[in-house]
Amino acid sequence: MQNDALILATRHDAVLHLALNRPAKRNAVNDALVAALDAQFAAIPDGVRAIVLTGNGDHFCAGLDLSELTERNVFQGILHSRSWHSALDRVQYSPVPVVAVLHGAVVGGGLEIAASAHVRVAEKSAFYAFPEGQRGIFVGGGGSVRVPRLIGAARVADMMLTGRVLDAEEGLAMGLATYLVEPGAGLAKGLALAQKIAANAPMSNYAVIQALPRITELSPEQGLFMESLVAAIAQGEPAAKERLRAFLDKKAGKVEKGQ
User: Fold this and answer.
1) Is 194 found in the same domain as 216?
2) Catalytic-residue membership of 112
3) Three-state secondary-structure class, residue 152
4) Could you tell me if 174 and 211 lie in one domain?
5) 13, 68, 177, 226: which could join 120 in a potential S-S bond, CB 3.0 to 4.6 Å?
6) What is the total count of domains within the chain?
7) What angle do CA 111, 116, 121 make, to 5 degrees?
8) Are residues 213 and 167 located together in one domain of the fold?
9) For the CA atoms of 115, 121, 127, 130, what is the dihedral angle to 10 degrees?
10) What DSSP assignment string belongs to 39-55?
11) Residue 255 pLDDT class (50, 70, 90 cuts)
């Protein structure tokens, strides 16, 4: 692990912790950071079953680093946006689940990164915004696709048009996060969730993060058919058969309230 790396990687058994590492810039995203994120998710080490994504310093990510924004023509702008799409597609369609831990600013490109994760834990310091409308620009890292799927297009339009900033409680209520914890408790919660996820059957995890979002985009008839295919594939795995036998033999725990 190199402390001057744009992304710090730390292994916790089957969990890989990746930390955005530009704290002096509030982890604002430049081209190099996007490339580093892409590279990390393109080469996930063997044995990793879940990933925790955080930001070093006081903020998760304050968005695009406008100080490094260069003049681009239309074609260059398209290619730049598509480079973000490629990197964040690697996150969303990672072979293993990704837990994002959010604190401080989760703004612009930071919110786009967070939306590409599968589970989001927010500390009470987290706040969300899409200031692109005030900057005279438009989201380009997948925010117009992923974030409306979480909170609806009307809320995203409100954020972009008015500059509205959502606090952590509002973000939780709208669906930007699925867990809310006290300041400083996010990483521990994220690692605990990732370790729990890592203990699942790999094929089951893969089906959830790969098939589920695609099924929701299909017509009901097509979605139900794909569900049948994925269910049959998952239950045919040796790990699934072993876990089902353990449950039937009363060797596995039952679902309890508060789990």
Assistant:
1) no
2) yes
3) coil
4) no
5) 177
6) 2
7) 70
8) no
9) 0
10) HHHHSPPTT--EEEEEE
11) very low
Domain that holds residue 69: 7-198
Tokens representing residue 112 in the block? 């786009």
φ/ψ of 127, rounded to 5, equals -145, 150
Q: Are residues 104 and 218 in the same domain?
A: no
pTM reported for the whole predicted model: 0.90
Active-site annotation holder among 68, 71, 112, 217: 112
- Which residues, including other chains, have CB under 8 Å from residue 249's CB and lie 6 or more apart? none
* Residue 97 covered by a domain: yes
Residues 76 and 115 both lie in one domain:
yes
Asked about 132 being catalytic, the answer comes back as yes
Q: What is the pLDDT of residues 21-62, one digit of tens each?
A: 999 999 999 999 999 999 999 999 999 999 999 999 999 999
Task: State which amino acid sits at residue 200.
Answer: N
Q: Which listed residue (68, 132, 182, 217) is catalytic?
A: 132
Q: Are residues 25 and 105 in the same domain?
A: yes
Q: What is the pLDDT of residues 76-114, one digit of tens each?
A: 889 989 999 999 999 999 999 999 999 999 999 999 999
> What is the number of alpha carbons within 13 Å of residue 157 lying toward its C-beta?
3
Question: In 10 A of CB 95, how many CB atoms?
Answer: 15
